[in-house]
Design a protein that fits this description.
- With about 280 residues, this protein is mostly helical.
- It folds into 2 domains: about 25-105, no CATH class; about 110-284, Orthogonal Bundle (Hypothetical protein af1432), CATH 1.10.3210.
- The protein is built from 16 helices and no strands.
- Helix 2 runs antiparallel to helix 3 (about 45-50) and helix 12 (about 185-195) runs antiparallel to helix 13 (about 200-210).
- It is globular.
- Mean pLDDT is about 85; it is low at about 1-5.
Length: about 280
């Protein structure tokens, strides 16, 4: 059976999403890493040199490599060892994450960015842990998606002075519905365009675009490929479990949580075990 293609953004959709929104351009560093990583035989020494030459990237690489998801054996403080442990796909994740954060550093409050990326990193780790319990869903890809699926939120916050208030107000409807009503665009669509502009894999961009669709788990949604739906589902389960562990209401996933659980075929015992594993990981 042919894999269905996701619906392409139309000209009007792109115009609505991009009207007045400054999507950070892809830096030369990201382009260089993408070009090397996509070769048939990437040179790990070239990728290592790029990351080792940047303090932020080096710190993120070490943090990832020593996390419960990627650590094999003892903790390392050697950037080269960390990169060898993580592999090419996660090198891309490191470079894009740090570059994207740096591109917004001068435009947004440092405390907001620190909190945003800290929560994104927690979601990424939890998504990878959920994926690792399931067959056929790469944990490293789930980690990458978990890190970037809400990456357009700072972009919209930079563009719209009242966006922070939208995030803080008690939700009477989903964030995407509120965004569309007020700004005629959403972080899901802008995030998909951001992923495309920065060269992230298409399945990630499709998953970002559709992760708030109410009919996400209905057959044949806009031709969404199963791999993209898988990434959304594991991250929605991860976000819901994290909300419970933090003592917060789950306003992000909402009713889609039950559908994600059913889609992944998880039972109560498995969810309880996942919650225990996440609680233990958060202590580290």
């Amino acid at each position: 059976m042919d894999t269905p293609r996701s619906h392409e953004l139309t000209f009007d959709e792109m115009n609505h999403a991009l009207a007045g929104i400054d999507i950070p351009p892809c830096p030369a560093t990201v382009a260089a890493v993408m070009a090397e990583a996509q070769k048939d035989s990437p040179d790990i020494t070239v990728l290592t040199r790029i990351i080792a030459g940047d303090v932020g990237m080096s710190a993120f690489a070490l943090k990832m490599a020593n996390s419960v998801l990627f650590r094999r054996g003892s903790v390392t403080d050697n950037v080269g060892q960390a990169i060898a442990r993580l592999g090419t796909r996660n090198i891309i994740c490191i470079v894009v994450a740090v570059s994207l954060r740096n591109s917004m550093a001068d435009a947004l409050p440092a405390d907001f960015l620190d909190q945003f990326w800290s929560r994104s990193a927690g979601t990424a780790l939890a998504s990878g842990m959920v994926a690792r319990k399931l067959r056929g869903i790469p944990a490293d890809l789930a980690y990458t998606y978990g890190l970037f699926h809400d990456a357009a939120i700072p972009v919209l916050m930079r563009r719209f002075p009242d966006y922070a208030g939208l995030l803080e107000q008690p939700p009477e409807r989903s964030l995407v519905e509120a965004e569309n009503a007020r700004y005629h665009c959403s972080h899901a669509v802008v995030g998909a365009l951001l992923a495309r502009n920065w060269g992230l894999p298409r399945n990630l961009g499709d998953a970002i675009r559709h992760h708030h669709d109410p009919d996400l788990y209905e057959p044949g949604l806009a031709g969404l490929a199963a791999e993209s739906r898988d990434l959304i589902a594991v991250t929605q389960v991860a976000e819901h479990l994290l909300s419970g562990l933090r003592g917060e209401a789950d306003h992000e996933v909402g009713e889609l949580y039950g559908k994600a659980v059913a889609y992944l075929g998880l039972d109560e015992d498995e969810l309880r075990d996942l919650g225990d594993d996440l609680a233990e990981a958060l202590k580290g």
